[in-house]
Design brief:
Layout lengths: L11 H19 L6 H8 L1 H8 L2
Length: 55
Amino acid sequence: MAPVGGTAVQDHVALAEIELCGELIIAASAAQERLSLESIDEVLKVAEERESSRR
């Protein structure tokens, strides 16, 4: 049970991971076949992340 008084802690990394898992679940449920590695990378925006880390 969460304490009364709004002392909840937010873990931003965990929240981001949960969001990415949700995106994968949505993509997988919409797909006719298994997602390819390229499709998974696209959903997870791997190319965008690589590009931003090079800057």
